[in-house]
Design goal:
Blueprint: H1 11-22, E1 26-29, E2 34-37, E3 47-54, E4 71-77, H2 83-93, E5 99-104, H3 107-122, E6 127-132, H4 152-165, H5 170-182, E7 184-190, E8 210-213, E9 224-227, H6 231-246, E10 252-258, H7 264-280, E11 285-291, E12 301-308, H8 311-318, E13 321-322, E14 327-328
Parallel strand pairs: 3-4, 3-5, 5-6, 10-11
Antiparallel strand pairs: 1-2, 2-4, 7-8, 7-12, 8-9, 10-12, 13-14
Helix pairs in contact: 2-3, 4-5, 4-8, 6-7
Length: 330
Amino acid sequence: MKMLINVPETVVPDALRGIAATHPELTVDVDKQVVVRRDAPVAGKVALVSGGGSGHEPLHSGFVGPGMLDAACAGPVYTSPVPDQMVAAAAAVDSGEGVLFIVKNYTGDVLNFDMAAELAEDEGIRIAKVLVEDDVAVTDSTHTAGRRGTGATLFVEKIAGALADEGAPLERVEAVARRVADSCRSFGVALSPCSTPATGGPMFDLPSGELELGVGIHGEPGRERRAMMTSREIADFAVDAVLAELEPEEPVLALVNGMGGTPLLELYGFCAEVHRVLGERRIPVARTLVGNYVTSLDMAGASVTLCRADEELLRLWDAPVRTPGLRWGA
């Protein structure tokens, strides 16, 4: 498998050096592997910090900036960052109003963010935490107890980030972030395995002509394998799996997310099928986002995330955002 890298050991710091060269509005500590918005700490503002293993870009470093995160911690590929990174990030962005940790539900991330919260509080930083666990495919997996955290992370970071920019207190930002996390469900499908820099080849076996329904963003097994299905059939299966747990009574925000190796041509076609299914189920779609946002290295496939959106959440979703991976508004 050919990869555009130097050596596997420097993949993450090399990428961070590239982020620093491209985005002068960010401060990038390559040694600590922490990305911070350059104007941090922002006076009077609750700060948002997230992070996780690399390989899911633009999550999380690509979502640092006004309207989303104040800092992100990059771990090795598919491996949690360490507590020292998280404490350094919190200290760099805390204005005195407190810091919200946004944590995907993976065992390493949960343990390390919990430890970091204790260490940061020992240094006088107020910490709140929100756990994202939106993947309906499996109840437990090789990396989690409970549902995995996937595409809903984008909705939590964007909506909570907008509220923090309005000057809301930590308790309010935490409550809304938790409401968003509770209002989202996701389901992913793999058409091919991903290849890691460490191995230089596929990290799991997926025979030609088969797909994995409910795959995790680290290649974890899903519900079942089947012979290849059409985009229409996959949309029926994925959306029905999400709706079985979400049961929305209001319009939804929809994320049609690429896993890293699927062209936009295919993603937009898949989006049309997702909208078809939602229309048949009489569920209105308030906004749709299509693209590669929560990826799995070079995996071909897609995921669907739906979020129940009342008027407040929709207003915060529409609020301006300016990050490397997501931007709109003034």
